[in-house]
Amino acid sequence: MNITVIILISISITCWVCGFYFLFRIPVCRTYAVQRKYPGVSIIIPARDEEYTIGPLLDSINNQQFRADEVIVVDDGSADRTGEISKKKGATVIESKSLPSGWLGKPWACYQGAQQASGEVLIFLDADTQFEENGLQNVMDTYMHLYTEDDADGKIVMSIAPFHKVKKLYEELSAVFNLIMLGSMNAFTPFKSIRTNGLFGPSLIVHREDYYAVNGHESVKNRILENVFMAAKFREKNIRLKCLGGRGSLSFRMYPNGIRDLINGWTKAFASGSSQTSFSALLPIIFWITGGFLISIFLVNSIVVNQGWVYWVLLYTGFFLQMYWMLKRIGSFKIMSALFYPFHLVFYCVVFFRSLIFQKSNKSIQWKSRAVTS
């Protein structure tokens, strides 16, 4: 084995190790066996044309042993039965006012919901999420535990990455996006002292006082990834960020309406999100992606020339097993997605660069009957 091959293998192994760094641990919400007095809880759900998802979410809330004090659905100009279904399920439905200049739909809906809410703790949820059995109890117990920690000083905002339930083959294409979304938060490294970068879009749990300390969603009124940008506002007020995985508490199914929705959904968000990710979080992700490509390319090359292929088969197997270990903690992805990971890496890069082009050219994407600029 010549020096060039040794160097390439060493680089590939280093890149592979980076995957263990950015997703080393993914803490989840759990119940704490502590008697405590809970504050009032308001669940706020912005919803636009969500007649197929709002019912299951509200059912999951209604079936919880721990009950929220109120559930508010902000109907953001839906053309379907979103509002009607929400009322039948017992939610308080607010008809969103006309979208003001400079606002995007989701931040505007969330802000209106917060203004109507009476709870001390505000839980913002996307309409496509669902609580697992005892999930709300787990979420509130974990939030209260973190809120009352000695070093929290009563100032904390929590966000959960829902466990991704995959049902159709094309939905497997979200695999790498999910991994990178979690890794970019800088919240799951081996080192607890590293500062968390952002907050996940589908959920936000925050005390009312802390929410209004940053002017709530008004401070990010024109942002697609409102929670990512709001994270910086919370940090400015010394409000601690905490990100967790959703396994056992909160889940969702992403883009069930087809591959076009999946592509457009990730396109509208990913380039914008990467611009808010710190260099320290991006670097290991870039190395990991690079390692995946290097291992795949040199495996094919070594087989073609029939030389040194054993080393690259071992590296490919290592990357495949690592990716499967990652994916099983964040969703119900199949083992085949990990085995054929090069295809997923290529798909991710294509969509990412599409997102970048849309962002740089200020080109909009049609999303739920609205033009959205990534």
Describe what you observe in this structure.
The protein has 2 domains: 3-23 and 278-373, no CATH class; 41-256, Alpha-Beta Complex (Spore Coat Polysaccharide Biosynthesis Protein SpsA, Chain A). Helix content is 47%, strand content 15%. The protein has a 7-stranded mixed sheet, with helices on both faces. A 3-stranded mixed sheet has the order 5-10-7. With 374 residues, the protein is α/β, with parallel strands linked by helices. The longest helix is centred in the C-terminal third of the chain and has 27 residues, at 279-305. The chain contains 14 helices and 12 strands. Helix 11 packs across helix 12 (309-330).
Secondary structure layout:
Blueprint: H1 3-22, E1 41-47, H2 54-62, E2 70-75, H3 82-88, E3 92-95, H4 105-116, E4 121-125, E5 129-131, H5 135-147, E6 156-161, E7 163-164, H6 175-183, E8 203-207, H7 208-213, H8 226-236, E9 240-245, E10 250-252, H9 259-267, H10 270-274, H11 279-305, H12 309-330, H13 335-339, H14 341-360, E11 364-367, E12 370-373
Parallel strand pairs: 1-2, 1-4, 2-3, 6-9, 7-10
Antiparallel strand pairs: 4-8, 5-10, 6-8, 11-12
Shape: globular
The CATH superfamily name of the largest domain is Spore Coat Polysaccharide Biosynthesis Protein SpsA, Chain A
Helix-strand sequence: HEHEHEHEEHEEHEHHEEHHHHHHEE
Strand content: 5-15%
* Domains, number: 2
Physical arrangement of strands within the biggest beta sheet: 3-2-1-4-8-6-9
CATH topology of the largest domain: Spore Coat Polysaccharide Biosynthesis Protein SpsA, Chain A
Radius of gyration from CA coordinates: 21 Å
CATH class of the largest domain: Alpha Beta
The count of DSSP E runs of length 2 or more, i.e. the number of strands, is 12
